[in-house]
Specification:
The protein is globular and about 50 Å long. The protein starts with a helix and ends in a 15-residue tail after the last helix. The chain is of the alpha/beta class. The protein has a single domain, classed as Glycosidases (TIM Barrel, Alpha-Beta Barrel). Helix 4 links the parallel strand 3 and strand 4. The longest helix is centred in the middle third of the chain and has 18 residues. It contains five helices and four strands. The protein has a four-stranded parallel beta sheet with strand order 1-2-3-4.
Length: 163
């Protein structure tokens, strides 16, 4: 199905403005398991991983999360692909230091080379289903540390991105 879809859009309809991202959940421990359902390098532009479980949802296991990010980052570099942390976060962010003590430490542990990190959405219809801080949230000071850290880049840091 993956190959058919990419081939149809890219080769039949001449659509070339999509980035095809292979991004399984975190249920792998090595490159072979990560690539178990991988369609092949010619069909993928970006590799990534979704991981909530190792970063506070089920447990705090930063070493395991960092090893998995390293697998993704190393494979991307070897295959000439982009790497990303395609989904993560901690619902309601009850840990006020989660941004620097969990997310940043995990990304830095093996110096993962990531195009981006995405935390899940904030649901405006729920008082508890949010993954990014908002004005007044207790994790804002720590998020600002994360934001200012030299390891992270935000849009304002990319001065010539559109030139």
């Amino acid at each position: 199905m993956w190959k058919f879809t990419v081939s149809y859009l890219r080769d039949s309809l001449n659509v070339h403005n999509f980035i095809y991202a292979f991004s399984p959940d975190n249920r792998f421990n090595n490159e072979e398991e990560f690539l178990e359902r991988y369609p092949g390098d010619e069909w993928v532009d970006m590799v990534g991983m979704d991981n909530y479980a190792d970063l506070g949802r089920d447990r705090y296991d930063l070493e395991t999360a960092a090893k998995k990010l390293k697998i993704v980052s190393d494979y991307a570099e070897k295959a000439g692909k982009l790497a990303a942390f395609t989904e993560t976060g901690l619902e309601s962010i009850p840990d006020t230091t989660w941004w620097t003590e969990t997310l940043l430490k995990t990304m830095q542990m093996y110096n993962s080379k990531l195009a981006y990190v995405l935390v899940w959405r904030n649901d405006v219809h729920s008082s508890t289903h949010y993954y990014a801080p908002f004005p007044g949230h207790k994790s804002v000071p720590n998020f600002l540390e994360f934001y200012k850290h030299p390891y992270t880049l935000f849009e304002k840091d990319l001065k010539s991105i559109y030139q």
